[in-house]
Amino acid sequence: MDTEAQPTERDRSSRPFDTEDASEPTGPEGRSRFALRLAERLPGGRITLTLLLCLLFLLLLSTFVLQPFQIPSGSMERGLRIGDRVLVNKLAYRFGAAPRRGDVVVFDGSGYFGDAEYIKRVVGVGGDHVVCCDKEGRLQVNGRSIDESAYLHPGDSASTVRFDVVVPHGTLFVLGDHRSNSSDSRDHLGSPGGGMIPLGDVLGRADWILWPSDHATRLVRPEVYARVPAGEGAHG
Question: Is 75 annotated in the active site?
Answer without folding.
Answer: yes
